[in-house]
Design goal:
The complex is a heterodimer of chains A (200) and B (377). Chain A is mainly β and 200 residues long. Chain A has one helix and 15 strands. In chain A, a hairpin with a 4-residue loop joins strand 8 and strand 9. In chain B, strands 1, 2, 3, 4, 5, 6, 7, 8, 9, 10, 11 and 12 form a twelve-stranded mixed β-sheet that branches. A seven-stranded mixed β-sheet of chain B has the order 18-17-14-15-16-13-19, with no helix packed on it. The chains are: A mainly beta (200), B alpha+beta (377).
Chain lengths: 200, 377
């Protein structure tokens, strides 16, 4: 019994020492550039799950995801702020399947500024909208604020399941959706949500 | 309670306290990491304009930082990624400014790109640290002809500084601006002569800050390619139908042997690369190859007229395209309404060459974007 108690005490002391040492190591490592010297894989703190947290989110939406061939349906691309930020530019590219849809009637009524360039490109199966905000402070977004960047009418040509998705760039690096902050003139991270529709 | 029991209770309490402290510290550490940056700094490569060089040359690229006023920087880790035409030859630190000699350099592959991480530190006392300095130079060796960019990988770069009274030393990198290069083949021997007439979007006869225009030139015919930099354009008094000033030039394509089926690609300092493949071209060529025919004589080689398809200005970050980042940069610069002279650092933003940064430059950029997007889509 006495030997058993000694063994427990020894174990407790070892655990205590390990915990204390671990705490000291954690404290001493904070903020040191040494921890990210070449070869290190430390991620910047704003990275969450390997992906930078978006300051805005883009979502492709429609009233119904069940569509019929030759019907006409309105699709919107919405941008929602995740935090307060002022934007200077939005280069938006929305991919679609040109073999399955006719896209027409670009609608910018959800925005107070007109796009500098816009086009439905059957050539590249993409809807292109470039917003350059000339207002000196840019487009003010705040947490929860939503603006409709563009709407368009889609007419299904054939049955199946199809996506309308925010393009992050093709193999040549073009058609890359880009959102640019007013203060830094740098692109900011965004989240995106595609729309999947079922055509019958 | 016997002695053994008392010591057991004390040890148990000790381990519980240690565990609790450990948990608190771990949580605290993670939270501090999120908000650990005590200020911000811009990290830039200089020159920001394209570096023109020949194969075999060494390109010196300066690393500069600018932190907020009174915020002192003591170490910078810069990860630069670059194209296959160049490679890091050596790195030096600004020892005259107190940075330690012998920077740490580590080349590696990041997402398929060749990159080099350079760490330069300073052990100077706080009084000698600076908020704004050039920390060193990266010397690239030009290996092969071609063009490309040298970019800073923000996620793999880091700045730290003196933050009196706090353990948080990290300085968040607000902007990271890279540069670009055009590596040309060394001019050797004779070659066919390429005579040309061009215009630049927005540059009209009355705009005086666009007298000395230059560009890089790539010529291709079949599988043969040659790259030349510093190709000059001479301004004339003539104006094209589109209202823009006409520039002329002539270039001996040293080392280039093809004389038929030639295509020419001009890339100005703030312009998109433009392909010219046929005389009197008025829109995007839109085909493989080219139809230009050259001779060995400046007198007998045709003067190709590309004035109806002007070079598109607005690629001010020199990444090969015009997008929202170029606009945002131009917007910031043009709001100053600064007067600029040709050759100034800010001249790259004077897209119409009228010697002032203003909304007309934004208009040129918008026109270029419309033109290019119309071609692409």
């Amino acid at each position: 019994m006495i030997e058993n108690n000694k063994w427990i005490k020894t174990a407790i002391i070892i655990v205590a020492v390990v915990v204390i040492l671990e705490s000291v190591v954690i404290i001493s490592n904070r903020g040191s550039i040494a921890s990210v010297l070449p070869g290190g894989n430390q991620q910047p703190t704003q990275l969450l799950n390997g992906k930078e947290a978006g300051v805005v989110s883009l979502a492709v939406k429609t009233d119904t995801s069940d569509m019929k061939v030759r019907g006409a349906y309105k699709v919107w691309v919405e941008m929602t702020g995740e935090k307060a930020i002022n934007l200077d530019a939005v280069d938006l590219y929305v991919k679609y399947d040109k073999s399955a849809f006719t896209v027409s009637n670009l609608d910018f009524s959800g925005m107070t500024v007109k796009p500098t360039f816009s086009k439905v490109s059957d050539l590249k199966s993409v809807v292109v909208v470039n917003y350059f905000i000339t207002e000196s402070t840019g487009l003010a977004m705040s947490g929860g604020k939503t603006v409709k960047l563009v709407g368009f009418t889609v007419t299904p040509k054939k049955a199946g399941s199809y996506d309308f998705d925010i393009s992050l760039g093709d193999s040549s690096g073009t058609s890359k959706t880009l959102i640019v902050e007013n203060q830094t003139s740098e692109e900011v991270a965004f989240d995106s949500q595609k729309l999947t529709v079922s055509v019958k | 309670m016997n002695k053994n029991n008392v010591s057991s209770v004390i040890l148990t309490i000790l381990v519980l306290v240690a565990l609790a402290v450990g948990v608190v510290l771990v949580r605290q550490s993670q939270e501090l990491r999120r908000g650990a940056s005590f200020t911000t700094a811009a990290l830039n490569l200089w020159p920001s304009e394209r570096i023109d060089a020949n194969v075999g040359d060494e390109l010196a690229v300066r690393i500069k930082y600018q932190a907020a006023a009174e915020k002192l920087v003591d170490a910078v880790q810069t990860t630069v990624c670059y194209g296959p035409q160049v490679d890091v030859a050596r790195v030096t630190a600004s020892t005259d400014l107190g940075f330690d000699a012998d920077p740490i350099v580590n080349k590696r592959n990041i997402s398929g790109k060749t990159c080099a991480t350079v760490v330069i530190t300073s052990r100077q006392p706080v009084a000698n640290l600076k908020n704004n300095a050039e920390i060193g130079k990266i010397y690239f060796k030009a290996k092969t002809a071609g063009e490309g960019t040298i970019t800073i990988n923000k996620a793999q770069s880091m700045v730290t500084g003196e933050n009196a009274g706090s353990l948080d030393k990290e300085v968040a990198i607000s902007t990271a601006t890279g540069t670009s290069y055009l590596i040309a083949d060394v001019d050797v021997g004779p070659g066919p002569v390429f005579n040309y007439k061009v215009t630049f979007t927005g540059i009209r006869k009355e705009n005086k800050c666009a007298e000395n225009m230059t560009a890089g030139l790539i010529v291709k015919a079949g599988t043969e390619t040659k790259v030349y930099n510093g190709v000059n354009f001479t301004r004339t008094d003539q104006v094209a139908a589109n209202g823009f000033s006409i520039y002329t030039g002539s270039k001996v394509l040293s080392g280039f042997t093809a004389k038929t089926g030639v295509a020419a690609f001009f890339k100005g300092m703030k312009h998109l690369q433009m392909k010219y493949g046929v005389d009197n071209q008025a829109k995007s060529y839109g085909k493989e190859g080219g139809e230009l025919v050259l001779t060995d004589s400046v007198d007998t080689s045709s003067v190709y007229d590309f004035t109806a398809y002007p070079m598109l200005a607005g690629d001010v970050d020199i990444n090969g395209e015009i997008n929202g980042k170029d606009f945002s940069t131009m917007k910031e610069k043009t709001q100053t309404y600064d007067t600029v002279a040709e050759g100034d650092d800010k001249a790259i933003y004077d897209l119409d060459g009228n010697c002032q940064l203003n909304s007309l430059d934004i208009a040129v950029l918008s026109k270029s974007l419309n033109e290019k997007q119309g071609e692409l889509y």
